[in-house]
Amino acid sequence: MATPEERLAELGLTVPEVVPPVAAYVPALRTGSYVYTAGQVPLRDGKPLATGKVGAEVSPEVATECAQQCGLNAIAALATQVDDLSQVVRIVKVVAFVASAPDFTGQPAVANGASELFGNVFGDAGVHARSAVGVAALPLDVPVEVELIAEVR
C-alpha cells in the first residue's frame, strides 16, 4: 500500500514549506492524538495563486485550484506535528472559507479542491466531515482558506 508521501508524488505534488504565520498563531498544534491546523491560504512560493471574490474576480475553477493549494499547505502544517504522514489515522474535519460574491453559492464545489486532495493522499483516512462557508473577505484578499483537524498516532 502506498504511503501518503508516495501518493503525493504520484499526483506530481510535494509537501511545500510551511506558510509562515501572518499574525500571532502557529501553523499547527498537536494536543493528544489530534492536530489542528490554522487556516491555510493558497500561497505558492510565497505568493497568492489568486486574489478577489469567487463569482466576481475569481472563477470557480481557479478557486478550486486555490482550495487544493490550501489543502497542500494544510498537509505541510500537519506534517510538522508527526514523524511522517503515515501517522495520520483520519482527516476528521475540514472547514473551507470561500470569499464570495453576494450571489455565489458554489462554496461546496470549491471546497472539493481540498477534500479530493485529502482523499487522494490519505485514501479512506482522508474521508472527512466538512463545512464550506461563504465569507465577505479573507486575509491577503485570497479567495479560499482551509483548516483541518486530523487524528494521528
Summarize the structure.
The protein has 153 residues and is of the alpha+beta class. 28% of the residues lie in helices and 26% in strands.
List the helices and strands and how they pair.
Blueprint: H1 4-10, E1 28-31, E2 34-37, E3 43-44, E4 47-48, H2 60-79, E5 88-99, H3 107-122, E6 129-135, E7 144-152
Parallel strand pairs: 5-6
Antiparallel strand pairs: 1-2, 2-7, 3-4, 5-7
Helix pairs in contact: 2-3
Structure description:
With 153 residues, the protein is α+β, with helices and mostly antiparallel strands. It has one domain: 60s Ribosomal Protein L30, Chain: A, CATH 3.30.1330. Helix content is 28%, strand content 26%. Helix 3 links the parallel strand 5 (88-99) and strand 6 (129-135). Helix 2 (60-79) packs across helix 3 (107-122). The longest helix is centred in the middle third of the chain and has 20 residues, at 60-79. The protein is globular. It starts with a helix and ends with a strand. The model has no long low-confidence stretch (mean pLDDT 97). This is RidA family protein. It comes from Solicola gregarius. It holds the Pfam family Ribonuc_L-PSP. InterPro entries: Endoribo_LPSP/chorism_mut-like (IPR013813), RutC-like_sf (IPR035959), YjgF/YER057c/UK114 (IPR006175).
Q: Give the topology string: H per helix, E per strand.
A: HEEEEHEHEE
Mean pLDDT, to the nearest integer, reads 97
Number of domains: 1
Helices, by number, come to 3
The CATH architecture assignment turns out to be 2-Layer Sandwich
Q: Mind telling me the C-alpha Rg?
A: 14 Å
Do you know the CATH topology? 60s Ribosomal Protein L30, Chain: A
Largest sheet: 5 strands, mixed
CATH class category label: Alpha Beta
Structural class: alpha+beta
- Quaternary state of the chains: single chain
CATH superfamily: RutC-like
Number of strands: 7
Q: Which geometry do the CA atoms define?
A: globular
Question: What amount of the residues lies in strands?
Answer: 25-35%
Name the strands of the widest sheet in spatial order: 1-2-7-5-6
